[in-house]
Amino acid sequence: MRISTKGDYATRALQDLALRYAEGPVPIEAIAQRQALPARYLEQLLLSLKRAGYLASKRGVNGGYYLAKPPREITLGQVLRAVDGPVAPIFCVSEENPREHCSQETFCALRDVWAEVRDAVSAIVDHTTLADICDRIRAKTKERISYQI
To answer: What does 86-138 look like in DSSP terms, one character per residue?
Structure first.
């Protein structure tokens, strides 16, 4: 399964905001610079995440975007579905209703495998929160610092 550029950029941007959750609004330019993302594209993504209820924004001098919920309440699965739609390796196992039907569906053994792939990926992204990602970043940073000493 492949994560789209949208999914990658959205999760990286929200990871950045989660790391700065207590600091208030963060300007798009700051997120774009830290995450090496194009600011214009990021702006469109952040607007769609705001419409989905994961972000809020503040205008003005100290304005920018911030998480609308605590990092523990936002999963990677929610973010990916908000920007990319259902997590499915192939159309016939999409969780979206209505979905396309396949003429081979009733006896296709591959469909069962693709459903298992969907379920495995969903289990990981639906149980990984932005707070979990922040914990991983902090652990990696600590690890890197200890090796440099």
So the answer is: S--SSGGG--SSS----TTGGG-HHHHHHHHHHHHHHHHHHS-BHHHHHHHHH
Q: Map 34-64 to HEC letters.
A: HHCCCHHHHHHHHHHHHHCCCEEEECCCCCE
All domains of the chain, ordered by start, with CATH?
5-148 (1.10.10.10)
Q: What is the pTM of this model?
A: 0.86
CA distance 145 to 104: 54
In this structure, what token pair is assigned to residue 47? 């607007």
pLDDT one-digit tens code per residue, 29-76: 999 999 999 999 999 999 999 999 999 999 988 899 999 999 999 999
Interatomic CA distance for residues 96 and 67, integer angstroms: 26
